[in-house]
TrEMBL record:
Enzyme class: hydrolase
UniProt EC number: 3.2.1.25
Protein name in UniProt: Beta-mannosidase B
Family that this chain belongs to: Belongs to the glycosyl hydrolase 2 family. Beta-mannosidase B subfamily.
C-alpha cells in the first residue's frame, strides 16, 4: 500500500535558554548568572545578556572593556522539542543549523551529532537515529574562539596580520569581531542563524537559475538545474514558472525530478540596468517539486536579465589596461562605497535598516557596493534590495588583512564555505564580482612573502585565491567574473596601471594632502578615505558632557585607528589634516564641525580626481571609485560617510554631488583652474556652465558663461586656459538647467587657515518642514542641524545674495534648528514674522 504524501514540515525550535559553562579547568565564570536565562534564537549571547541586564551597552563609553569576559566564556544554548507522528512518520527528519558562531558542539538527547568550526557553513543533519517520540533535547555548546585559534596557531605557526589578534586567521569567524581600526572587539557566540527541524519526503536541495543575455541583447536564456534531496520517486517532477516584471506569465517547463535540468527562452527580455543607466525589472522564477497533486518543496527567486563583463583593455596613450564593468554593452563608472557589517550584534540589523542604508547609497548616485572581506556574507535581504535599487555588488570572500593558512582541514572548511556562499547568492542580478580577499596580497608583500624573489611557501593561502576560489566560481557561478584579491593585478598590489588599487597615501602612509588624490590613482580605486567624527547627537549617545573633548579618553576610545604596531593614532592623523586647513577649534563642537568638513573636502577631491579620469571609450583611465566606507557598526570617529544612527555626514553630500549623472568638476592648478563636465548619461547634452568669481568679502570679480557639448558617458574638458584667479578668490562653476543649478564646484582659497574669512552673514528661518537660508557673502560648508529631522540637502556653499530652501523630513520647531558655516558663529534659526504672529 502506498504511503500518503505529506506536505513538507519545517518548524523552528522554541523555548531556548543560555547558560555559561565551566572552562577547561572546571572553573565557572564569576560574572555570569548561575541559572539559565531565556534566550532568543537566532541570536548571540551578547544580545541575550544585554536584554537581561547582565552586561551594559558595549557601545556606551568604555563599556567595551567591561564585557570582554563574555567572549572568553563557554556558553550553552539548549532547547527541548516534541516529536509526534507527523514528524516521525516522514521519510526524512533533519536538524537544520543555518549558522553557528563559531566553535560549536551540537548534541541531540546527549549524543554529539556535529562539531562545527565555521560561522559561514550551514549544516543539515539526519537526526532520526537520535530522536524519540515525545520530548527531545538539543544542546549547542559554544567554546570561546580565542583559545581555539591560539591552539591552531601554536600548531601551525604565528602569521602576520593587520588588525585583531593574529590567531583570527585560523578561525572562520567574522574577522571584524576581533576588533578592527574602526570597530570594537566583541567575540560573539551563539546560533546566529535559524535552527529548525525539517520533516520531508523529498526536497529541493539546490536550485540554479542562471539568466544569460545574448550579445545582441535581444534574447535571454534561463537555465534551471535542480538537485533533489531525500527520496524522490520516479514520477516526481520539477516545474518551473517564469513571470515577467509586469506580472505576465512568460515561460514554463516541467522536468523529471531525477534529471531536473532544462532551459527556457525569453525573447526581447526586459533588461536590468545599474542605477542611473535604466530600470531594474526583475523576473520571478518559481521552482516547485511535485508528487502528483502534492507540493513537496518550492523555491522562488527574482532574477534580472543583464549582460555583465569586466573589461581590461588598453588605455589610449597610457601603459597598462583598464578595469571597467560593462553592463548590457555600456561601460559604467562604478562610483560607490565599501560596506562593513552594520553591527557587531548582527541579529539587531533589521530588513528596514538594510533598506534604509542601501537607499542612502542609491540616493547618493552610487552604482556599486563592495561587501568587504572582513565581515560576513550578508543576508538575502541585502542582495534583494541591491537588485531592486540597481546597486552592483562587488563581493569579497571573507579573508582580510592576514596571511591565512592552507592546511587540509582549513582548505576543506573554506571550500564548503565558498560553495555555500556562491550557490546562495549567484542568482542575483546585482552580483558583479567575486573577489578572493581584502589586502592579503599587500600584507604578503609587506613581509616579503609576495613579489620578486619571495618564497611561495610563505604565502600558502595564494592557493585559495588563485586555485580553489576561482574553481568554485567557475563551477557554480561562471556568469560572474572572479578577481584574486583587492587590491591586485599588476607587478605589485599598488600598481596604478593594472587591476584595482587601494589609495591610502592620503591618511595612512605618507599622509599626503587630500588635494593630491590624483597622484595616487588606479585603474579602479576600490578603497580610499579620511576620518571624521559622527554627528553631535550620536556623540551624545556614548559620552557624558565631561567626555566631550577632542582628545579625551572616551572620545578617543571610539576611534580605533592605529599604527602598524597597534598604537592608537587616529586623533593624531586627524589633527594633522585639521591643522592643514583650519586654525585650532575654539570649542569641541567646532572641532567636530571642522573635522567633518575636512572629510567632505577630501572626498570631493578624490571623486573629482578619479571620476575626472573616466575619459571616453578606449581611454578609461579610472573606471571606479569606492569610498572607505559607507556605514558604521558602532558610534565612532571613522571613515564612514553615514554614522551608526543613519545620519549622513557632510562627506556624504559631497560625494552625492560629485557622482551626479551630470556634474561639473574643477581643481586649482597654480593660479588657474582646470574644469570639466562628466556625464554618465547615454546621450550627449548641450549644457551651460556659469563661472562666477567672488572676493571673500562678497565682491563679484568675474561672471561669464561657457557653452559645452557634454559627450555621453564621458569627460568633456572646459576651456579655461586664459583665466587667472587671485589666490584669495572663491571660484564657482555652476552647471545650469531650466531655472536651477544642476551642480556646482566651488574652489576656495587654500589653505583656508591663512586667509581672513569674514562672517558670511547667514540668516535662517524655519516654517514647518522648510528651512530657508540666505548668505550676504560667500558661505562655505553650510550645515543644517535639525536634530532628528533630516534635510533634503545639506553641506552647501552659497553665493552672495543666494537664497536656498531645504526641506526636512518632519516638522520641527525653529528653536531646534542651528546652522554652521566657516567663519560664522552658530546661527540659530527663527520663525518667519508671519508664523510668529499666528
Amino acid at each position: 500500500m502506498t504511503q500518503p504524501t505529506r506536505a513538507p514540515h519545517r518548524f523552528p525550535l522554541a523555548g531556548w535558554t543560555v547558560q555559561a559553562r565551566p572552562d577547561a579547568t572546571g572553573a565557572r565564570p564569576t560574572r555570569a548568572p548561575v541559572d539559565p536565562l531565556p534566550a532568543t534564537v537566532p541570536g548571540t549571547v551578547h544580545m541575550d545578556l544585554l536584554r537581561h541586564g547582565v552586561i551594559p551597552d558595549p557601545y556606551d563609553g568604555l563599556n567595551e572593556l567591561e564585557v570582554q569576559w563574555v567572549g572568553e566564556t563557554a556558553w550553552e544554548y539548549a532547547a527541548t522539542f516534541e516529536l509526534g507522528d507527523a514528524e516521525l512518520d516522514a521519510p526524512h527528519l533533519d536538524l537544520c543549523l543555518d549558522g553557528l558562531d563559531t566553535v560549536c558542539t551540537a548534541s541531540v538527547n546527549g549524543t554529539v551529532v556535529l562539531r562545527s568550526e565555521n560561522m559561514f557553513v550551514p549544516h543539515r543533519i539526519d537526526v532520526r537515529p537520535y530522536v524519540q517520540r515525545g520530548r527531545n533535547s538539543l544542546s549547542l555548546h559554544f567554546d570561546p574562539v580565542m583559545p581555539y585559534g591560539r591552539a591552531l596557531e601554536a600548531e601551525h605557526g604565528k602569521r602576520a596580520v593587520w588588525n585583531g589578534d593574529a590567531s583570527r586567521v585560523y578561525v572562520r569567524k567574522a574577522q571584524y569581531h576581533y576588533g578592527w581600526d574602526w570597530g570594537p572587539t566583541l567575540l560573539t557566540a551563539g546560533p546566529w542563524q535559524d535552527v529548525t527541524l525539517h520533516a520531508y519526503a523529498a526536497r529541493l536541495d539546490d536550485v540554479r537559475t542562471a539568466l544569460t543575455v545574448a550579445d545582441d541583447l535581444q534574447r535571454a536564456t534561463l537555465t534551471v538545474e535542480a538537485t533533489v534531496g531525500g527520496t524522490p520517486a520516479p514520477g516526481d517532477t520539477v516545474d518551473v514558472h517564469v513571470v515577467a516584471p509586469d506580472g505576465r506569465p512568460v515561460a514554463q517547463l516541467s522536468m523529471p525530478a531525477l534529471a531536473a535540468a532544462g532551459t527556457l527562452d525569453l525573447p526581447a527580455p526586459a533588461l536590468w540596468w545599474p542605477r542611473g543607466y535604466g530600470e531594474q525589472p526583475l523576473y520571478t522564477v518559481t521552482v516547485t517539486l511535485r508528487r502528483e497533486d502534492a507540493v513537496l518543496d518550492r523555491v522562488q527567486r527574482r532574477v534580472g536579465a543583464r549582460r555583465l563583463e569586466l573589461v581590461q583593455e588598453g588605455v589610449a596613450g597610457e601603459p597598462g589596461t583598464s578595469f571597467t564593468f560593462v553592463v548590457n554593452g555600456v561601460p559604467v563608472f562604478a562610483g560607490g562605497a565599501n560596506w562593513i557589517p552594520e553591527d557587531l550584534l548582527l541579529n539587531r540589523v533589521t530588513p528596514d535598516r538594510y533598506r534604509a542604508r542601501l537607499q542612502q547609497a542609491a540616493d547618493a548616485h552610487m552604482v556599486m557596493i563592495r561587501v568587504w572581506g572582513g565581515g560576513i556574507y550578508e543576508p538575502d535581504v541585502f542582495y534583494d534590495v541591491c537588485d531592486e535599487l540597481g546597486l552592483l555588488v562587488w563581493q569579497d570572500f571573507l579573508f582580510a588583512c592576514g596571511l591565512y593558512p592552507a592546511h587540509p582541514a582549513f582548505l576543506d572548511s573554506v571550500r564548503a564555505e565558498a560553495i555555500a556562499a556562491v550557490t546562495r547568492l549567484r542568482h542575483h542580478a546585482c552580483l558583479a564580482l567575486w573577489c578572493g580577499n581584502n589586502e592579503d596580497y599587500q600584507i604578503a608583500e609587506s613581509v616579503g612573502a609576495a613579489g620578486p624573489g619571495a618564497d611561495p611557501s610563505a604565502f600558502a593561502a595564494r592557493s585559495i585565491y588563485e586555485r580553489m576560489l576561482p574553481e568554485v566560481v567557475r563551477q557554480f557561478n561562471p556568469e560572474v567574473p572572479y578577481w584574486p584579491g583587492s587590491p591586485s593585478g599588476g607587478a605589485s598590489s599598488s600598481d596604478p596601471t593594472i587591476g584595482d588599487r587601494h589609495t591610502w597615501e592620503v591618511w595612512h602612509g605618507v599622509m599626503a594632502p587630500h588635494q593630491d588624490y590624483g597622484r595616487y590613482e588606479g585603474r579602479f580605486v576600490s578603497e580610499f578615505g579620511l576620518q571624521s567624527p559622527p554627528s553631535l547627537h550620536t556623540i551624545a549617545s556614548f559620552t557624558r558632557p565631561q567626555d566631550r573633548r577632542a582628545h579625551g579618553r572616551v572620545f578617543e576610545h571610539h576611534n580605533k585607528a592605529a599604527d602598524p604596531r597597534g598604537r592608537p593614532d587616529g586623533s593624531r592623523r586627524l589633527a594633522a589634516y585639521l591643522s592643514d586647513t583650519f586654525q585650532p577649534a575654539r570649542t569641541f563642537e567646532e572641532y567636530v564641525y571642522h573635522a567633518r568638513l575636512v572629510q567632505a573636502d577630501a572626498m570631493a577631491s578624490a571623486y573629482r580626481a578619479f571620476r575626472g579620469r573616466w575619459g571616453h571609450d578606449g581611454a578609461r583611465a579610472v573606471s571606479g571609485a569606492l569610498v572607505w566606507q559607507l556605514n558604521d557598526c558602532w558610534p565612532a570617529t571613522s571613515w564612514a560617510i553615514v554614522d551608526v544612527d543613519g545620519v549622513p555626514k557632510p562627506a556624504y553630500h559631497a560625494i552625492r554631488r560629485e557622482l551626479a549623472p551630470l556634474a561639473v568638476q574643477a581643481r586649482r592648478e597654480g593660479d588657474g583652474v582646470h574644469g570639466w563636465v562628466v556625464s554618465s548619461a547615454l546621450h550627449d547634452h548641450d549644457v551651460t556652465v556659469q563661472l562666477d568669481v567672488h572676493a571673500l568679502g562678497g565682491d563679484l570679480l568675474l561672471s561669464e558663461r561657457h557653452e559645452c557639448h557634454a559627450a555621453a558617458n564621458a569627460v568633456t574638458p572646459l576651456d579655461l586656459r586664459d583665466h587667472r584667479f587671485p589666490a584669495d578668490a572663491v571660484v564657482v562653476l555652476r552647471l545650469l538647467g531650466t531655472g536651477q543649478d544642476l551642480g556646482r564646484a566651488a574652489l576656495w582659497p587654500e589653505p583656508l587657515k591663512q586667509f581672513d574669512v569674514p562672517d558670511p552673514g547667514l540668516s535662517v528661518t524655519v516654517e514647518h518642514r522648510s528651512v530657508s537660508l540666505h548668505a550676504a557673502r560667500p558661505a562655505r560648508g553650510v550645515w543644517v542641524d535639525a536634530g532628528s529631522a533630516v534635510p533634503s540637502d545639506n553641506h552647501l556653499d552659497l553665493l552672495p545674495g543666494e537664497r536656498v530652501r531645504v526641506v526636512l523630513d518632519r516638522d520641527v520647531a525653529a528653536s531646534n534648528v542651528s546652522v554652521w558655516a566657516v567663519g560664522s558663529e552658530v546661527v540659530r534659526a527663527t520663525a518667519p514674522v508671519a508664523a510668529l504672529r499666528r
